[in-house]
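Limitations
The structure tokens in this dataset are predictions for the assembled complex, not deposited experimental models. Users should treat interface geometry with appropriate caution, especially where small molecules or nucleic acid strands are included. An illustrative entry is reproduced here so readers can see what is and is not provided.
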Amino acid sequence: GAVVSQHPSRVICKSGTSVKIECRSLDFQATTMFWYRQFPKKSLMLMATSNEGSKATYEQGVEKDKFLINHASLTLSTLTVTSAHPEDSSFYICSAASTGAGYTFGSGTRLTVV
Amino acid sequence: AQSVTQLGSHVSVSEGALVLLRCNYSSSVPPYLFWYVQYPNQGLQLLLKYTSAATLVKGINGFEAEFKKSETSFHLTKPSAHMSDAAEYFCAVSGPNFGNEKLTFGTGTRLTIIP
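Predicted assembly:
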């Protein structure tokens, strides 16, 4: 079945630094990648939608300059949290999708900013 | 616009008892409906999906769900709960262009299994 690899699974960084999270579809080409943020004991909040070779579409209230999304190929998307602060600490999950085949989720990244 | 409502943020059942997790949807177009399970600090795993074929959908781990258009519901059931079923469950909806459009999630239901 479809597999999405997301890493790192856990990262701790200092306030003010940037962190990059990778999301790869291993055995299929993802036409669309979605990035979600999940607060403790809460549902998934969609941050942005990206298509290969296009600029990401951000949801209302999500700072596009802070959360940089790159979708360079049909199998790779990255989320960079720039100038991270403690309030950016969260669980980030990517989802890779292909037309008609549905959605496959990565295993998530726990970001802690200290 | 599409949305899902999950009734009951917490559900507790005894091991071996019936599991029923409720999901109601709202959609202006024919919906595609999904149930996902999430274990602590992990991503989401697809349990089952409804894509306009059979209204009774069987998924993994003994779960199934029935699409009822008249009730706008897609409740998840399992005849006999197992300790390993303890997790967070999310209902989600997309339009017919699924794979290209976003999923909209419910707020989740935490399932606890009582030994």
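Some entries come with short summary sentences. For this one: Residues 11 and 111 of chain A are 5 Å apart (CA to CA).
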